[in-house]
Amino acid sequence: MLGSSAGSNENRYLALDGLRGIAAISVMLHHLISYRSPTIFDNATVAVDLFFILSGFVITHSYGARLQSNMSLFEYVCRRFIRLYPMFILGILLGGFALYLLLRAGLTDYSKRDIVASMIYNAFFLPYLANKGIQSLGGHSAVFGEVFPTDPPAWSLFFELVASFTFVVLLKMEGKILKRIIVVSYSIFMFGVLLLAYVEHHRDLDLGQGWGTSNFLLGFPRVLFGFTFGVFLYRFANDGSWIRARNLCRRYIKSPWLLYLTLGGILALPTTLGGLYPTLLLAIVAPSLVFIGASIDCNNTFDVTISKFFGWISYPIYCLHFPIGRAVFVLAAAAYFSPAKAASISVVVTAAAAAVFTKFYDEPMRAYLSRKLLARSKSNGKPSPTLAREAVELSLNRSNV
């Protein structure tokens, strides 16, 4: 219940839902106002790494113990599919339509055949490795080689799925091995970023890698670093020896709003300091925010309601904002609207569409898939009360994982 007392199991980690929502909104604003240069929210690319860390943390909380006891791999995969796919495929379909609008407006090198092929690849969570150009939002430059051209932010969902399978292996590893994986994957990722900057003659380091054909491989160490860090943080945060650090967080941070404002502020800061600033965000700030968010409680009904809402709306905003933004910018250009007006319309339409599609499409679809895939025991084919109850809980779960 929304009015549950602080510290209850239901309200545990709600602040992380709020963090996810702020991160998703930051990503949306970064994409929709990218026509400005320089722009605020340039560092919102680190929000994707925050998503990876959050996923590792919350998936360990949600599935770790059950995978080690009685949950089958099949059920785990079904649950991940149910959580991710309905809104994901909606974004792909809307993105295919938006890409067609760009083709009609002469703003992309993609042909009709390319659009259909990319939609098929992307619909199966597969990257479309090509090097064709698409005019960016606002029309001042072109972006080449997006591996999910129908819905560009969905590249991270591909790596999210990879991480979900990797979790089965990470779950069995000791803490010291997880530390080594974190250090090694971070080192490989940063080496790749440095090498790419040298090859492409960039003065600044760009940590936003993994989305395109030319930097796709860097997505693997990037997600391995973030996701493994999240798994490690869950063990770290629930280790009795770190109770003092958690108690300090609870003593001095009485409301999650300070956490939300901090995240929004550091992502909005319009400077990268040559890449040093986002590097520090990735290595230190993002993991620290997740640990702090996992340590504090939502202490009143308002905080609980807002945090749940942020968690509820975050995934649909992430999946839908780019296809909607593309369509709005194309139509706005035809109507001679300014980019600022197009961006404002895109934000409003995305927020409305996210709420409507979640309520009337995503939640019913997840409930249907839960009944079909989870509510029958494999042993005798009869309905299983436990699985049926868990299926309903899953379908109503507001979290991103």
Number of discrete helical segments? 13
Q: What is the CA–CA distance across the termini?
A: 20 Å
Q: Calculate Rg over CA atoms.
A: 21 Å
Strand order of the largest sheet: 1-2
Beta-strand residue percentage:
under 5%
Listing every helix as H and every strand as E from the N terminus to the C terminus, the arrangement reads: HHHHEEHHHHHHHHH
Tell me the quaternary state. single chain
Q: How is the biggest beta sheet arranged?
A: 2 strands, antiparallel
- What is the approximate shape? globular
Give unreliable regions as ranges: 1-10, 379-401
Helix content: 55-70%
How many domains? The number is: 1
SS content category? mainly alpha
| Strand count | 2
Mean pLDDT: 88
Explain this structure to me?
There is one protein chain. By secondary structure, the protein is an all-alpha fold. It has one domain (14-396). 67% of the residues lie in helices and 1% in strands. The protein has 13 helices and 2 strands, in the order ααααββααααααααα. It has helices at residues 14-32, 45-67, 73-104, 112-123, 155-170, 175-199, 219-237, 243-252, 257-268, 276-295, 301-334, 339-374, 385-396; strands spanning 133-135, 142-144. The chain has a two-stranded antiparallel ribbon with strand order 1-2. The longest helix is centred in the C-terminal third of the chain and has 36 residues, at 339-374. The protein is globular and about 60 Å long. Residues 1-10 and 379-401 have low confidence and may be disordered.
